[in-house]
Each structure stands twice: as C-alpha cells, then as structure tokens.
C-alpha cells in the first residue's frame, strides 16, 4: 500500500532524543561493509522493490545526472544507472570506504554506462553548484548528525527545479524483520548499550524529515508511505541477510559460540509470529521528496 501527503509546515520534530554519534556511525558501517558486499548480489532483486519507488518519487529519467548519497553497496545508484541510460550519469558517494567496496565491485560487471563511486561526505559535497538533476538517498539520511548542512548541500548541487528524494524507515514496530531480530539478539547477548538501532527510526514520525526539507528551502515537499507485507516460509533462513548486515557490530562483539544460540532465538521469535508455517513480514518505509526552487 502506498499513501502520500503534502508537507506544509516546519514544526515537526524528530522522534529521537539525541543526534547520531558520528564516530559510532563510522565504526558501525566500517564493521558492516563486508556483510553488505556479501549479500548485495543475492538481495539485488529484493532491493529493487525499494529502489524503484524511490527513483519514481525522485522523477529519475533517461539522460539525467543523478547523485546518490550514502550509496553503500550500490543501492540505488546501480538501478539509477540503468534508468538514465548511456546519455545520463550516476555518481554514488559514501563516507565509509568499506561500504563502497561492494558498489565498486558490482559496477565493474555493470552492463551499460557504469556509475562512478567515490568517498564523500553528504554535508560537504565535492561537486559544483547546480551539477545534478536528481539526488537520491536510500536509508542514509538518518545517520547524519548535521541534517541542515546535508540539505543545504543537496540544494546547492541540484539544478533549478531539480528534485531530491530520501527513503527512511517507519516505526520499528511496523518492521517485522528488525523488531524480531533485535529481540532475538538481545535475548542472547543482552540489550545493546549503544542503542545502535535508534538512528534507523530517527524519522519514523510522519512529516519529521519533510519539515526539515521545507525549512531548508525545498519546495513542493511530499511524503509517501510504503507498507508491503511479504509472506515467507518459516523453514527458510529469510532473516539471515538482515541479521548479518544490520547487526554486524553486535555479532562481532558477542562471545564465541553465541551465533548458533542467536540463530536459534531468531527461529523461535519468528515462529511466534508465523501462521501455519508462513511468516508475515511487514515493512514500513517512507519516501520524502522535494524540489529545488
């Protein structure tokens, strides 16, 4: 299900009580890079179920120049490169070299005009003014402490009437994979003292990111909610990619032998929400898009 609404005001606050810690986030993604690279190809088709709505919301068209922020292992930059075609150009940046390793590897085998990838900070973009037609960011903006600088830089590099679109997560309770995995991991190794899941849901409240975009100068800011439900067989390890990618730092710090116990706990948790051997996986993401004036 997809719903949309315009964002008018700039008085909505984020749901988090504290900004993400820059050093902690850099460490998190440095530790997670290998897992994202390992799972990026097997998860590519599933990733496109989120990539394509984001590209649609951003209005990405053939021949355009696209900047993808926080590209990680190449999503949605690779999908954008297919859409813009040989007359267009896509550049993806990420703050952490370990995360971009997968994107660079995957681009080497790309058929068509390859996207370029580079290390870059979205709060200080290394590009000239009005250089891009579109800017995308899939699940990256939540981890940036200085949102105002990111928005200002995004506007600066966009052409007049260009468009940016950001994808963020809805509430943890609406995302079955995350909520059940977090509970299972915590059962075995205890609560996360760093609360590393919190930044993922920084903009869980409707309008929270859109109000910041409006305040920064974006026009015609809109928001869409994506709320699909997948139904997967309980006897398949459908959760393993998310466990490896999202919980890599916590798993790395666990005691030897904990992994098997964690996987047993994961199976138990998903058994609790399954019906007749099928597990419904609810997902809630939001796409917030706005135009440069």
Notable features of this structure?
single chain; 293 residues; alpha/beta; Rossmann fold; 8-stranded mixed sheet; two-stranded antiparallel sheet; 10 helices; 22% strand; globular; disordered N terminus
What does this structure look like?
The chain is α/β, with parallel strands linked by helices and 293 residues long. The protein has a domain at 2-171 and 202-227 and 285-291: 3-Layer(aba) Sandwich (Rossmann fold), CATH 3.40.50.150. The protein is 40% helix and 22% strand. The protein is built from ten helices and ten strands. The chain has helices at 22-40, 44-58, 77-84, 97-108, 147-157, 176-189, 208-216, 240-246, 248-253, 258-273, and strands at 2-6, 65-69, 89-94, 116-119, 132-138, 158-169, 219-226, 229-233, 278-282, 285-291. The longest helix is centred in the first third of the chain and has 19 residues, at 22-40. It is globular. The protein starts with a strand and ends with a strand. The model is unreliable at 1-17 (pLDDT under 50). Pfam families: Methyltransf_25 (PF13649). This is Methyltransferase. Residues 66-162 form the Methyltransferase domain. Keywords: Methyltransferase, Transferase.
């Amino acid at each position: 299900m997809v719903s949309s609404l315009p964002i008018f005001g700039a008085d909505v606050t984020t749901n988090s009580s504290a900004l993400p810690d820059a050093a902690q986030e850099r460490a998190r993604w440095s530790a997670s890079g290998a897992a994202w690279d390992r799972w990026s190809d097997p998860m590519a088709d599933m990733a496109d179920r989120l990539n394509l709505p984001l590209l649609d919301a951003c209005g990405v068209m053939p021949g355009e120049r696209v900047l993808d922020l926080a590209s990680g292992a190449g999503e949605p930059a690779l999908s954008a490169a297919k859409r813009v075609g040989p007359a267009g150009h896509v550049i993806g940046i990420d703050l952490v070299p370990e995360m971009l390793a997968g994107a660079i590897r995957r681009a080497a085998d790309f058929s068509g005009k390859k996207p370029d990838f580079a290390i870059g900070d979205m709060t200080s973009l290394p590009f000239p003014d009005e250089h891009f037609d579109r800017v995308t960011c899939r699940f990256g903006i939540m981890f940036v402490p200085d949102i105002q600088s990111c928005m200002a830089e995004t506007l600066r590099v966009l052409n007049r009437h260009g468009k940016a679109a950001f994808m963020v997560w809805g509430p943890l309770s609406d995302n079955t994979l995350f909520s059940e995995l977090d509970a299972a991991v915590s059962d075995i190794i205890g609560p996360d003292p760093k609360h590393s899941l919190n930044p993922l849901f920084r903009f869980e409240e409707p309008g929270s990111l859109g109000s910041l975009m409006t305040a920064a100068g974006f026009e015609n800011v809109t928001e869409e909610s994506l709320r699909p439900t997948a139904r997967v067989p309980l006897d398949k390890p459908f959760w393993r990619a998310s466990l490896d990618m999202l919980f890599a730092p916590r798993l790395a710090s666990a005691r030897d032998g904990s992994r098997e116990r964690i996987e047993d706990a994961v199976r138990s948790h998903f058994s609790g929400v399954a019906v007749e051997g099928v597990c419904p996986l609810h997902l809630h993401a939001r796409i917030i898009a706005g135009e440069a004036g």
